[in-house]
From TrEMBL:
It comes from Arthrobacter oryzae. GO terms for molecular function: monooxygenase activity. Residues 4-73 form the ABM domain. Keywords: Monooxygenase, Oxidoreductase. This is Antibiotic biosynthesis monooxygenase. The keyword Oxidoreductase applies. Signal peptide: none annotated. SUPFAM superfamilies: Dimeric alpha+beta barrel. It comes from the Bacteria. It holds the Pfam family ABM. The lineage of its organism: Bacteria, Bacillati, Actinomycetota, Actinomycetes, Micrococcales.
Length: 97
């Protein structure tokens, strides 16, 4: 079963100049990871420090492998850009659709 994952980020205002390049580099690794079906970054129109990363994964297991990789060998410096802890939310398509 495929899933959609929302990673809600609130960046430090002083990191906005460097954030785009770092996030683009990080997401290149995400998109290359086995099971990633796509990634999109949405920027809040009224608050450019608020971003929503929308990831699509082929399976929960592949997403779990990705999260494990990011916690270890695939770790990044994204935390240095954040004003608050990110929020990760998992969505599956409703059977009623």
């Amino acid at each position: 079963m495929s899933l959609t994952v929302h990673l809600d980020l609130n960046l430090k205002s002083e990191s906005l100049d460097t954030a785009s390049d770092m996030i683009r580099d990080i997401l290149a690794g995400t998109q290359a990871f086995d099971g990633c079906l796509g990634v999109e970054v949405l920027v809040d129109h009224h608050d450019p420090a608020h971003m929503l990363v929308v990831e699509r994964w082929a399976s929960l297991e592949q997403d779990a492998a990705y999260r494990e990789w990011r916690a270890g060998d695939g770790a990044t410096e994204l935390g240095s850009l954040l004003a608050a802890a990110p929020t990760l939310t998992y969505f599956v398509t409703s059977a009623e659709s």
